[in-house]
Design brief:
Strand order of the largest sheet: 1-2-5-4-3
Helix content: 10-25%
Number of strands: 9
Oligomer: single chain
Distance between the termini: 101 Å
CATH topology of one domain: Beta Polymerase, domain 2
Shape: elongated
Radius of gyration: 46 Å
Order of helices and strands: HEEHEEEEHEEEHHHH
Largest sheet: 5 strands, mixed
Strand content: 15-25%
CATH architecture of one domain: 2-Layer Sandwich
CATH superfamily of one domain: NADH:ubiquinone oxidoreductase Nqo5 subunit
Number of helices: 7
Length: about 290
C-alpha cells in the first residue's frame, strides 16, 4: 500500500510570511503585527477588495473562513472588520482588518467569495457596519423590526423591547422591557458592619425623633418623682396581703410543715467505720 502525500504541510511556519505579504500589499497596509502565532494586517478601508483578491490569487489564500466584527467605543472609527483567510495548500492562516464607523461603508467582498454575503449580513446585524455593494444587506439573526445592534458595547443588556405572545390580540407583540426586579449591584459588604450608604427602600422609612439624651444632656424634670403612698407604686394592701403567704427564699412553703433552719444535711445512709491502716515498715517495702 503506497503512502498518500498531501501538498499542505502538517505544521506551517510564519517565518518570512509577514514580510512577503507586506511587500506584496505595498502602501495599502496601515499596520501589521505577529502575535500569539497569528499574523494580522490592517489595510485601508477602500483597498480591502483589492488586498483580498491579491492574497487569494497570488498567495494561495483560497478560503474565506469568517468575517467578524469588533467594537471599540472610545475610537473615532469604533469598529474593526476582521477577515480570516485560510490557505489550503500551505495550511496557513492570516487575518486582514479594516477600520470603520457607523457612517463609513466597507466595500463588499461578495465579488470574491459568495459566502461573504451571509457573513457581512451578520456583522451588519450585530454591529451596524454597512457593506457597500452587498446585494442583500438585511438582518440575519435578529427579528423583523428589531432596534439596535446587540454586539455593540453600549447596547443595554436587557434590550429595548421584549417579545411575547398576546392572548388578547392572538399575535406576537413587542413591548418595552419591564423588569420585576432591578439588576442588583453586589458589593460584598460585611453583614455585621452594614453599608455606608442608604440601601434601596430605606429612604422610605421616616427617621425616628431624636431622644432627649441624643439631643444633648439628661431630660429636664421640674419636680422629682417620689412614691409617698402605696397607691403611687401600683401596689397597696391587697398586694401586701398576698405577699405574706410566700417564702422570700428557698422552696415554697407547704401547709403543716415548718421551715427548717438552714444547716448541714443529714446523712443519707450509715456505714461502718473503716479499720485504721497499718503503717508500712522498711522491711515490708523491700
Amino acid at each position: 500500500m503506497s503512502a498518500v502525500l498531501h501538498p499542505a504541510p502538517k505544521f506551517a511556519s510564519n517565518d518570512g510570511v509577514r514580510e512577503t505579504l507586506l511587500a506584496a500589499l505595498g502602501n495599502s497596509v496601515l499596520f501589521s503585527k505577529e502575535e500569539h502565532g497569528e499574523i494580522a494586517i490592517t489595510v485601508q478601508r477602500d483597498r480591502i477588495e483589492d488586498a483580498l483578491r491579491l492574497l487569494r490569487d497570488e498567495h494561495e489564500y483560497q478560503q474565506l473562513v469568517e468575517i467578524a466584527g469588533v467594537d471599540f467605543p472610545d475610537r473615532s472609527e469604533r469598529f474593526e472588520v476582521v477577515y480570516m483567510l485560510l490557505s489550503l495548500t500551505k495550511n496557513h492562516r492570516v487575518m486582514v482588518k479594516v477600520n470603520a464607523s457607523e457612517n463609513t461603508p466597507v466595500q463588499t467582498v461578495t465579488t470574491l467569495w459568495p459566502v461573504a454575503g451571509w457573513l457581512e449580513r451578520e456583522v451588519y446585524d450585530m454591529y451596524g457596519v454597512i457593506f457597500a455593494g452587498n446585494p442583500d444587506l438585511r438582518r440575519i439573526l435578529t427579528d423583523y423590526g428589531f432596534e439596535g445592534h446587540p454586539f455593540r458595547k453600549d447596547f443595554p443588556l436587557t434590550g429595548y423591547v421584549e417579545l411575547r405572545y398576546s392572548e388578547e390580540d392572538k399575535r406576537v407583540v413587542y413591548e418595552p422591557v419591564q423588569l420585576a426586579q432591578d439588576l442588583r449591584q453586589f458589593d460584598f459588604m460585611s453583614p455585621w458592619e452594614g453599608a455606608d450608604y442608604v440601601l434601596p427602600g430605606d429612604e422610605k422609612v421616616a427617621s425616628p425623633a431624636p431622644s432627649a439624651a441624643a439631643a444633648g444632656g439628661a431630660p429636664k424634670v421640674d419636680t422629682p418623682k417620689t412614691t409617698e403612698k402605696p397607691a403611687d407604686t401600683g401596689a397597696g394592701e391587697p398586694a401586701n396581703t398576698a405577699a405574706k403567704g410566700k417564702v422570700s427564699s428557698g422552696a415554697p412553703a407547704v401547709e403543716g410543715v415548718a421551715a427548717k433552719e438552714s444547716g448541714a444535711p443529714e446523712p443519707t445512709e450509715s456505714r461502718p467505720a473503716r479499720k485504721p491502716r497499718t503503717k508500712k515498715t522498711d522491711g515490708d517495702a523491700a
